[in-house]
Structures are given as structure tokens and as C-alpha cells.
Design goal:
two-stranded antiparallel sheet, about 0% strand, globular
Length: about 190
């Protein structure tokens, strides 16, 4: 990757990170009616990445439809896949000496954790996830209602999702800062 490409990529990730608190649908700040180009670009980027991670999430469940998994593993496997996929991509690039690509993958682990934190925070809404909130557009089981109920953690949903969100932000911030250092300090 050329130094200019690294700088541009790091700048785009920084911009996305800075816009995340304002435009993310997981955060209660109201950005309805915002018709700026930045908002539209954020929504497009957010949609593509969220749908990609959603496909990976559902693939995790799908593995357990093929293999004889216990119900607990089948429910947890969506989130496991969603987090491990970008982590393995990052590991792959790190082992090959491409630190910058590994940092991009690490950012997506944090991005995926943001979604996970939001999903956790809705566990109190019940075991059944209506089609309007389901990635597949059909009624489904709410993974975290099932998991938190199974482990008797439902009363701690807010605390657990808050810690997860904090961890996600820290991971995303670390990845972006490391990308900026890599692009602007190490390449000079």
C-alpha cells in the first residue's frame, strides 16, 4: 500500500469514527432530517458493513443448522462468527506483516462489537425478535434474550451492553490511532 493510500484510508476511518456517535442508528442522538452528503455517505457505508456482518452472523447460526450443535451454541454462534471473522482476517494480515490491513480488520472487530452491544441492549424486549428488527426480515429468536436468560444475566443487560460498547469504542479508537501513526509517522 502506498503512503498516500494509507493516509487516505486512515483519514476515512477517522472520519467514520468521528461521525459514528452522531449518525449511528444504535445511538439515541436524533439525526433524522439530516440531508448532508456526509450523512448519506455514512449511512451507505454503515449499511454495507452492517449487512456484511449480518450475513456472517447468520452464517454462524447456519453452521449449527448443518452440524448437530446444542441450542446454546447455535444461538451464540452467530455473534461468535461475527466477531471472529474480522479477527481472523486481522490475524491473517498480521502474520503476513501487513500491520495496516490488520488494523483495518481490528477496527471492524470494534464495529461488530458496537452492533453486538446494541443487540444486547434490546434483550429485555423479549425472546421473539419481530421481523421489522430482524436482519432476515422474518420473526426470529432474540439471541441475547435467550443467552442472558440462560445464564441469569438479563437484569444486567444494560451494564453488560455498556461495557461491550465501551470496549468497542476503545478498540475502534485504538485501530484508527494506530492507522494514523502508521500512515503519518512511520511512513515519513
Amino acid at each position: 500500500m502506498t503512503p498516500a493510500a494509507k493516509k487516505t484510508t486512515a483519514g476515512l476511518f477517522l472520519l467514520f469514527l468521528l461521525l459514528f456517535p452522531k449518525f449511528s442508528p444504535y445511538i439515541s442522538v436524533n439525526s433524522a432530517g439530516d440531508n448532508t452528503l456526509l450523512h448519506h455517505l455514512f449511512v451507505l457505508y454503515f449499511f454495507v458493513t452492517s449487512q456484511t456482518l449480518g450475513i456472517i452472523h447468520e452464517s454462524g447460526h447456519g453452521v449449527c443448522y448443518i452440524l448437530p450443535c446444542p441450542e446454546l451454541l447455535m444461538v451464540a454462534n452467530g455473534t461468535i462468527f461475527q466477531l471472529l471473522f474480522p479477527a481472523f482476517v486481522g490475524y491473517y494480515y498480521k502474520k503476513r506483516g501487513n500491520r495496516f490491513a490488520a488494523l483495518i480488520a481490528l477496527f471492524f472487530v470494534g464495529f461488530s462489537l458496537q452492533y453486538t452491544a446494541w443487540y444486547m441492549s434490546t434483550a429485555h424486549e423479549g425472546l421473539h425478535l419481530p421481523a421489522s428488527k430482524s436482519f432476515l426480515g422474518v420473526d426470529a429468536m432474540h439471541d441475547f434474550n435467550y443467552l442472558f436468560s440462560y445464564f441469569h444475566l438479563l437484569p444486567y443487560e444494560g451494564f453488560i451492553s455498556g461495557l461491550t460498547r465501551l470496549g468497542a469504542y476503545l478498540l475502534m479508537i485504538y485501530a484508527v490511532v494506530a492507522m494514523l501513526v502508521d500512515a503519518f509517522v512511520r511512513d515519513n
